């Protein structure tokens, strides 16, 4: 009789623990699970970052190239060995503006926009 009582108490304890775990578990709808997956998925964050990078490449493709300024100085004792200390330096300043062919910027913009379309279709 004591053995049967132990079995009954053991089975009751298992049933009680299972029913508590069922009561404590949250209930999710399908839409809740989809929202959680979208929010917690790291791959979607990577795809969103790629889409943002593609959008910024459109801005870069539309912009003009910046001018470049170059300064230089250096010793010239090998060229003028018998000069004074102030004459032993060479100075140079260059200012340049890169130029593009007429259709290059339009082509860059079209490529950048196609990358945006691809990136937005993936996400």
Quick summary:
With 123 residues, the chain is of the alpha+beta class. Helices cover 60% and strands 13% of the residues. A two-stranded antiparallel sheet has the order 1-2.
Indicate the topology.
Blueprint: H1 2-24, H2 30-40, H3 42-62, E1 68-75, E2 89-96, H4 104-122
Antiparallel strand pairs: 1-2
Helix pairs in contact: 3-4
Which properties best describe this structure?
single chain, 123 residues, alpha+beta, 2 domains, two-stranded antiparallel sheet, 4 helices, 60% helix, 13% strand
Describe this structure in words.
- The protein is of the alpha+beta class and 123 residues long.
- The protein has two domains: 28-65 and 102-123; 66-99, no CATH class.
- The chain contains four helices and two strands, in the order H-H-H-E-E-H.
- It has a two-stranded antiparallel sheet.
- Helix 3 runs antiparallel to helix 4.
- The radius of gyration is 36 Å and the shape is elongated.
- The two termini are 66 Å apart.
- The mean pLDDT is 79.
């Amino acid at each position: 009789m004591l053995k049967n009582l132990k079995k009954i108490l053991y089975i009751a304890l298992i049933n009680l623990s299972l029913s508590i775990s069922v009561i404590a578990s949250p209930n999710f709808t399908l839409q809740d699970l989809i929202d959680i997956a979208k929010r917690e998925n790291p791959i979607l964050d990577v795809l969103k970052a790629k889409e943002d990078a593609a959008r910024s490449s459109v801005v870069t493709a539309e912009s003009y190239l910046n001018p470049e300024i170059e300064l230089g100085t250096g010793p010239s004792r090998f060229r003028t060995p018998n000069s004074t200390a102030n004459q032993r330096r060479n100075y140079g300043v260059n200012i340049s503006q890169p130029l593009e062919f007429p259709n290059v910027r339009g082509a860059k913009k079209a490529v950048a926009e196609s990358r945006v379309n691809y990136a937005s279709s993936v996400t």
